[in-house]
Amino acid sequence: MRRACGLSKLAMRAAFTALCLCAAVGAAQAETVEVTGVAFDNVLNLRTEPRAGAPLAGALPPAAFGIEALKRADGWVYVRSGRLEGWASARFLRPQSAPGERPPSPLQCVGTEPFWSFTLAGDTLTYSTPDLKPAAAQVAAVQRSRNSTIVWRVAPKDGPVASATIEARQTCSDGMSDRVFSFSARVETRDGMFLSGCCDSER
Predict the structure, then answer these.
(1) Domain 31-95 class?
(2) CB within 8 A of 75, min separation 6: which ones?
(3) Averaged over 31-59, what is the pLDDT?
(4) In the Cβ-directed half-sphere of 129, how many Cα atoms lie within 13 Å?
(5) Confidence band (pLDDT; 50, 70, 90) for 134?
(6) What global pTM score does this model have?
């Protein structure tokens, strides 16, 4: 009887140790990153080794996200995206922010022809055009889409902007430069204009 009890205690200790090991492995998850700073018509090359002259292992599009960063070495990051794996330059990667009830802040948005811009910083949206000095307005409401965690509608209390719809994880181009933005924006002004443009978070 005593022997049976002893075996039972040993089994319990083994099970507890296995549980702790599983928890530790689960905690050591890979960091999730996204591509940044790559031109709209370019790609981020993946290399077989952490150096510029190494053979290519593949390429990621300019606004790729959901990438696993597995290890780092001398300014390079070994990443995995789907079936692609390889070393990418760390300066073209940044931590991916988790979707939230509000868009990232501060967020800088721009549009062309006609030119306009706005900055969303906390509860303040500041809008401007070449003919309009920056006009700041307090945000009255932020509504996240009911069927997407990366789309938000921002409604200021007053000011030139009636509402702005922001969508994350886009490959957005301003049509004037080779810069790639990670967000798109649709703006409705109080005088009836409907504008589109691109945004990026200042992270």
Answers:
(1) mainly beta
(2) 50, 89, 90, 91
(3) 92
(4) 15
(5) very high
(6) 0.68
**Does residue 171 have a pLDDT over 90?**
no
52 vs 37, 59, 86, 94, 152, CA distance in Å? 17, 14, 12, 19, 39
Residue corresponding to tokens 């996240």: 144
Domain ranges (residues) in the chain: 31-95, 107-201
Instruction: Give which of 106, 111, 134 is closest to 194, Cα–Cα.
Output: 111
Alpha carbon dihedral 93, 95, 99, 102, in 10-degree steps, equals -100
| pLDDT for position 1 | 46
pLDDT bin (cut points 50, 70, 90) of residue 183 is very high
CA 16 – CA 103 distance, rounded (Å): 42
- Looking up tokens 């931590």 gives 95
